[in-house]
Amino acid sequence: MATVVSFINYKGGVGKTTVAVEMAASLAYHKNKRVLLADLDPQTNATFYLITEEAWEEWAREHGTLKNIFASATSDPPQEFDLHKAIRTNFVFHQRTNEVVSLHLLPSHLELMMADMDLAMRFGAKGFEGRKILRAAFEKVQDEYDYIICDCPPNLNLITQNAILASDALMIVAMPEYLSTLGAARVVQI
Q1: Fewer Cβ neighbours under 10 Å: the N or C end of the chain?
Q2: Of 103, 115, 1, 4, the residue nearest 46 (C-alpha)
């Protein structure tokens, strides 16, 4: 059963994405763990760490992204989306040896930015139902991974709250400066 860890801070630019991607890759490559990196940030930077923009566009069109999980849940009536379809599994770490590791990616999408509003309109800004969508999606794949690493956006909106509720642990990434610690304090207040 996977341990879900979300990398989070209310402030952007503190290194959340870099730490999340490097932690996921290190667990897979150095510790031989089965890792799913879930990119929850509409900026899609964690996604672009691992695949090119062209490859992402093709993948999103043919297989879907994390956006489809939330779009399915907010459709009327709600629909089921096969999470397995959206997970990209074919990464090669060393070109010379064709070494493959168990690092998989659940890519983000630029349109995920609108999912927060869709969730609030469907379930209400304070509704609990809109906060447990990601946890339900992860339950379908949790036995296939040792870790699910979530790269969260720099906000505390409903997508981030979904990650918090789905997580076993939070890694609050901060830089040694004042504004970064203010962002960390906001996360603790939730």
Answers
A1: N
A2: 103
